[in-house]
């Protein structure tokens, strides 16, 4: 029989009318409703129906729960795998593109879901007047958030920037800037981060948020 919306409604309307008339009663297991015959002669059939319905409903819930666990609980502090200093230097020296390597970015601190990077003033990072350019600050922010993603417990692997939003608050000249990135959430396919950039004196320079695509 081909199930359509009309046939489905007819079936359930008939079932509930029979239930209201006392012909049958319904037993609800999880999200499934099964008809239970009140006649003693059908007690054996009812006993066979309950375990299968419970197994179906419970298995359905457990599969969903396992999916949520795999997707969103890998960012616990006890499950973090931090990068060692050698891997950090290798990443900055070889894995990053030349436009980022030329900025002189250095990793100051790494923690569970957190990364702190510094960038000194220089010709590659500053525009006319010695003021940090927006392009250099964006590169610093993106790099800091990449390192924050790599502290989610799965180590360093290729990531792709899907969305990057920057807000530039004030200019900075003559002193290095510090970017503090935070991992907001890390799932199976995406990671969400935010970053604050301040001057060495503590003045707020810029803030941003980014979404990264993760390998399957």
Descriptive account of the structure:
By secondary structure, the protein is of the alpha+beta class. The chain has two domains: 5-72, no CATH class; 77-213, Hotdog Thioesterase (Thiol Ester Dehydrase, Chain A, Roll). Helices cover 36% and strands 28% of the residues. It is built from five helices and eight strands, in the order αββαααββαββββ. The chain has helices at 5-20, 43-72, 85-95, 98-101, 134-149; strands at residues 25-29, 32-36, 106-111, 114-119, 160-168, 177-186, 190-199, 204-213. It has a six-stranded antiparallel beta sheet, with helices on one face. A two-stranded antiparallel sheet has the order 1-2. Strand 1 (25-29) and strand 2 form a beta hairpin. It is elongated, with a radius of gyration of 29 Å. Residues 130-204 form the Thioesterase domain.
CATH superfamily of the largest domain: Hotdog Thioesterase
Number of domains: 2
Total beta strand runs: 8
Just name the CATH architecture of the largest domain. Answer: Roll
CATH class of the largest domain: Alpha Beta
Count every helix, treating DSSP H or I runs of 4 or more residues as helices: 5
Q: pLDDT average, as an integer?
A: 75
In CATH terms, what is the fold-level topology of the largest domain? Answer: Thiol Ester Dehydrase, Chain A
Proportion of strand residues = 25-35%
- Based on CA inertia axes, which overall geometry fits? elongated
Residue ranges: pLDDT <50 for 5 or more in a row? Answer: 27-39, 57-80
Largest sheet: 6 strands, antiparallel
Bin the helical content.
Answer: 25-40%
Distance between the termini: 39 Å
Q: Structural class, please?
A: alpha+beta
How are the strands of the largest sheet arranged?
3-4-6-7-8-5
GO molecular function, one term: fatty acyl-CoA hydrolase activity
Protein name: PaaI family thioesterase
Organism: Bordetella hinzii
Domain Thioesterase: 130-204
